Amino acid sequence: MSLSCHHFDAGRCGSCALLPTPYADQLAAKQVQVRGLLDPVAAGVEWLEPVRSAESGFRNKAKMVVTGTSAEPVLGILAPAGSEAAAAGQAGIDLRDCALHTPGLVAAMEVLAAFITRADLAPYDLATRRGELKHVIVTESPDGEMMVRFVLRSQEPVARIRKHLPWLLEALPMLAVVSLNLQPEHKAVLEGEQEIVLHGTTLTMRVNGLPLHLRPQGFFQTNTAVAAALYAQAAEWIDAVAPARVLDLYCGVGGFALHAARCASSPTVTGVEISADAVAAARRTAGEMGLDDARFEAGDATAVEALLPGADLVVVNPPRRGIGDLAAALEASSARDVIYSSCNAVTLARDLERMPSLRPVRARLLDMFPHTGHYEVVTHLTRR
Q: Which PROSITE patterns match (predicted)?
């Protein structure tokens, strides 16, 4: 077994399905799988050595379902159907000591549980549809600062949370952001659209010397060290082809775009992202770092179509569904190179088939999610 976990051994949590498999074998199996998917559509691609992850303490984000009572909260996951816990009438499994989480996250769990009791935050009960607190989401930055988000059914407990917030800030002095997310619907959705920020504004995720600013509803990779390797690899490939103009789609808070802007070739970089908050965060980092040739726009597919004609190199980092119709636009564009970072090799292979003029020349697997079947793969495509 690659990592000892008493929750897995006892059958309480099966999230890390590959835990019985030695880590080196996990990595080898992922490499076989991704090559099986991509080699038929990417013949002759150069595969670089996979990027390994730490086997424990690597996950910078904890998404905890809250069950139990306000006096005795349970922070973890819902009890799996058919498990001993479910048979005993327990709604959840406590995973405060999950070995995937950074030590800082693990240490914060006891304080957060005490805060739930202090503020009398009744956990939401799925069976009765009563209670308020659904999830606690905690993110830790490389500098040890934290963001805590409480996902609530309604605004009923907001006043109590505000009242006891000074206690929480004193107990967890590393808290940079505290917010409340409202998710009133009775369905399996982690969070809702409305966010109430109580303390701070952004969490600074410092990666390869770049201060990336994460807001409560923003996205950031959960494995900081492997994310740093991903950005560095993309920047190396970008620097090697020295494009004059780089376009980063799905740019988020600017991870790829800002790394590209620091390349020795000094390209002009444009990042496009639908989230205005993420665009504001990326602009802030560019200003702080003096990256005057990096600009960011809030836009959708229409904006992308307008910007594509001027790009020499395009970076895409889509969600699991892939790039969809954008594949045809890239195929028809004049872009010489594409850097495609994917968390789903199945949709990546499909998208590559739709871009026959863009030939994958090198690729690398990055083990963003150890002990699971998931991984990230980044590939460099160049026009034939």
A: SAM_MT_RNA_M5U, TRMA_1, TRMA_2
